[in-house]
Amino acid sequence: MVREQYTTTTEGTHIERPEDQNVYKIGIYGWRKRCLYLFVLLLLIILVVNLALTIWILKVMWFSPTGMGHLQVKKDGLRLEGESEFLFPLYAKEIHSRMDSSLLLQSTQNVTVNARNSEGEVTGRLKVGPKMVEVQSQQFQINSKDGKPLFTADEKEVVVGVDKLRVTGPEGALFEHSVETPLVQADPFQELRLESPTRSLSMDAPRGVHIKAHAGKIEALSQMDIKFHSSDGMLVLDAETVCLPKLVRGTGGPSGSSQRLYEICACPDGKLYLSVAGVGTTCQENSQVCL
Ligand SMILES: *[C@@H]1O[C@H](CO)[C@@H](O)[C@H](O)[C@H]1NC(C)=O
């Protein structure tokens, strides 16, 4: 604000220039001044509050020269100690456990591992649920340490590649259809039984059936006939003793004979019978059994 006062001078007149009237007054006065002070004060308050808030945030967030709380920024990446929650997907290239500790994936619901192709379709899935473990894939394989397949399952077959398959359940193993194997063998010192409790059992081998009992006997029991058929061969009973203890005894001969010798006679249909031996043959006399 400049206040200037001029007094026009005319010749002969006294020029009056009072000192106080010739002062240039520069400055802020009155309400403007108060406003400015108020403004500066407000700014100061805001600054202090800002500083306090910043310090508070730094303290609350645990800022430190190396990072923020449990989150540390290092040369080779981030390090987060303590529990961390990611409420949405976490994208990572690899997940490792820490040195000398195992890796645990845990959930009260299913834990699923999916493999997807470039179109995003699931091509393989491993699902561990509270009630079952499910693998969905074209082939499931378990390999040994040196890469030998121990168990392989695909749509066509299941292969168990181990040396021995042991079924320990009391019910054994059930196969709906045939079992193909070159050998059926009992455990050492165990009996082996081949059984069909309510139906028949048949053994069929075009090139021959051999039944051997090296240190025991062979017994065949049957309620009905026992038949040995041979189309081209003969029936050989190769033993020092051949007994037919229940062979029928021909009747009509001299009964009560003291001699204990008999001769074996045959009917026309092949049936054998005994006849008390005489000087000549006695078959004819005792042939009534053939009728
Ligand atoms: C877990 O998996 C099973 C089997 O696939 C499924 O039936 C069930 O719905 C799943 N549970 C949840 C919560 O997704």
UniProtKB/TrEMBL annotation:
GO terms for biological process: cardiac muscle tissue development; heart contraction. Keywords: Cell membrane, Cytoplasm, Cytoskeleton, Disulfide bond, Glycoprotein, Membrane, Signal-anchor, Transmembrane, Transmembrane helix. Coiled coil: none annotated. The chain crosses the membrane at residues 35-58. Its main location: membrane. One of its GO terms (cellular component) is sarcolemma. The keyword Transmembrane helix applies. It is a single-pass type II membrane protein. It is found in: Cell membrane, Sarcolemma; Cytoplasm, Cytoskeleton. Component of the sarcoglycan complex, a subcomplex of the dystrophin-glycoprotein complex which forms a link between the F-actin cytoskeleton and the extracellular matrix. This is Gamma-sarcoglycan. It comes from Trichechus manatus latirostris (Florida manatee). The gene is SGCG.
